[in-house]
Specification:
This protein has 193 residues and is an alpha+beta fold. The protein contains 3 helices and 9 strands; from the N terminus they run αααβββββββββ.
Length: 193
């Protein structure tokens, strides 16, 4: 089992290198990412105690844990074109490590500054670089610090909330007070020229 795990780890690193090869075409990077996702899922379910630090062997992979290490959240980006990235992510919980919760980037369909609660299938794709429990809230709410390098004109730091409820993960919660005169951004990516 140890030899199998080491072989998979080596394959994972090789596949990751292909995902991040700038000289490759967009289609080649996309295909490499699909293969990487399959290999990563295999590696994650073998790591039942969530102890492998993937960010050390996979540069550009962001892994955050809460202080109690009850789960980990892995995020990364794929360069689609020179002016566009797509985000990918997965949540793995220690109480059920073989059940992975993949995140699907639907940020092209959402308004910036959305106040909606989003499911994993509607995730506002980004890289998470910090996570902490929300003080004074119900169990299962975490404050996320994220970064979205959507294109050459847009770089955003994003404050989000991760909520676990009935075995599912959701993004967003009514924890923030907004001033009544705060402007709402109404342009979607497709509207920007």
């Amino acid at each position: 089992l140890q030899a199998q795990s080491q072989a998979l780890s080596g394959q994972l690193v090789d596949q990751w290198t292909m995902v991040n090869t700038i000289e490759a075409t967009s289609a080649e990077r996309n295909n490499a990412n699909k293969g990487f996702i399959t290999m990563l899922a295999q590696a994650l379910v073998q790591d039942e105690d969530l102890s492998i630090d993937y960010s050390s062997s996979l540069p550009g992979m962001f892994v955050v844990y809460p202080t109690d290490t009850s789960f980990r959240l892995l995020t990364w980006e794929l360069l689609v074109t020179v002016n566009h990235v797509r985000h990918f992510g997965v949540i793995q919980q220690k109480d059920n490590p073989k059940r992975l919760l993949p995140l699907f980037d639907a940020s092209d369909r959402h308004f910036y500054r959305t106040k909606d609660v989003l499911s994993r299938d509607e995730w506002f794709g980004q890289i998470y670089y910090d996570l902490s429990p929300v003080e004074g809230s119900n169990e299962g709410q975490y404050l996320l610090l994220g970064y979205d390098r959507k294109d050459s004109l847009s770089d955003f730091k994003i404050l989000d909330v991760l909520v676990f409820s009935e075995g599912e993960a959701f993004f967003g919660a009514p924890l923030f007070a907004y001033p009544p005169d705060m402007p709402v951004v109404v342009l979607q990516r497709a509207d920007i020229q």
